[in-house]
Design goal:
The protein is mostly helical. The protein has eleven helices and no strands.
Length: 244
């Protein structure tokens, strides 16, 4: 997660001057978001007519629009609730459009078609899980295959489709399903729940295996839930958890 945070910070710093320049020209964040959707649709059109490399290059341009809209919003301090909502909706549409285009292009190749459809389903569920979690004030910005990773993988997969498209599709499908499970579990950990006393007792000792079990239990139940249960047993969970 630290690596992801560093990457996001680097991208933000790199795009801030561009955002200021676009803002000076009168370009709005919503206009860039719309342009990104149009470019994604155009790229999908080239994929459908068996020109995936051109489609991938256009998709890169669309991805840049998606990056610059945030930079313009930061430069002009013009972030609005509707802007965030619109950007999120367009992101979902873009994901569906490009993966649906790839599915149509691969319609005569059953294995790759099936993998693409799984990737499409996973991409939509990933976004839905986060939206539902945030609607009940829970954090859900985790996962090995978030939108930025999926978009970059697709761009490379289309541009270099002769060599890496199928591995990329498998990455999107499997990584997407893993991300869905990660997000559901992350939300589950944030909801208060009872932890079986027998499990708490196994983590309360000071042996090496007790500490190993403690690490696993905190990951599974969430540190807040498990430490609260542990507090009822040992008084101060820090006396057991230490620097874990």
């Amino acid at each position: 997660m630290a690596l992801r945070a560093t990457f996001d910070t680097t991208i933000s710093r790199a795009t801030t001057p561009i955002g200021r320049g676009l803002a000076a020209l009168g370009v709005t964040p919503n206009a860039l978001t719309t342009m990104g959707l149009i470019l994604t649709a155009a790229g999908a059109g080239f994929v459908v007519v068996d020109q995936p490399m051109i489609g991938g290059l256009i998709l890169i341009a669309g991805g840049l629009m998606d990056t610059f809209d945030g930079a313009v919003a930061r430069a002009t301090s013009s972030s609005t609730p509707f802007g965030g909502f619109y950007d999120s909706v367009v992101d979902r549409m873009s994901d569906g459009i490009i993966l649906a285009a790839i599915a149509f292009w691969l319609r005569d190749q059953p294995r790759q078609l099936g993998v693409t459809l799984v990737a499409l389903l996973a991409a939509q569920v990933i976004s839905y899980v986060r939206a539902r979690a945030e609607s009940i004030d829970l954090d859900c910005s985790i996962g090995i295959m978030e939108r930025a990773e999926r978009a970059i993988a697709l761009m490379f997969g289309l541009v270099f489709h002769q060599w890496i498209l199928e591995p990329v599709l498998w990455l999107l499908a499997v990584g997407g399903l893993v991300t869905v499970v990660q997000r559901i579990h992350h939300v589950w950990c944030q909801v208060a729940r009872d932890v079986p006393e027998e499990l708490v007792a196994l983590a309360a000792g000071r042996n090496a295996w007790n500490r190993a079990f403690l690490v696993a239990a905190r990951r599974f139940y969430g540190s807040t839930n498990f430490d609260a249960a542990l507090d009822d047993v040992v008084g101060d969970p820090r006396s057991v958890t230490g620097d874990l």
